[in-house]
Amino acid sequence: MVTQVAKTSGYLTAFKTAATLNTLAVLVQAVTAGQLMSGGGAGLHGMGALAVHLLGLAQHVAAVLLWRPGRGAAWPALVSLAVLLLGFVQSMLGGSGAVAAHVPLGMGLFGLSVWLLVWAWRR
Asked: What is the pTM assigned to this prediction?
């Protein structure tokens, strides 16, 4: 549910923008992970993690604003928080070389990000 307050205040637009950019950043991470398999792209993959963290934070802030002052649904803020926190876990697993957990978690993060993106753009 998205209220008229959320639509007219710009909170929904902010969330749509943040969700789009975050999902694109997670997708780019998947592409650079594929490049790692062929022996390159380590620097890009590491820098992409920073983008995922920053955009995950922006998405969470936008979701909280959509919820509280915007009087929207609370669950996007909770899922955005999960995406943000799981992104940090994802980075720690990747940095430690635990690829068996890093890759499936990355797929899960992409799924959650797409879910939020689709929800936002259907409003």
From this structure: 0.90
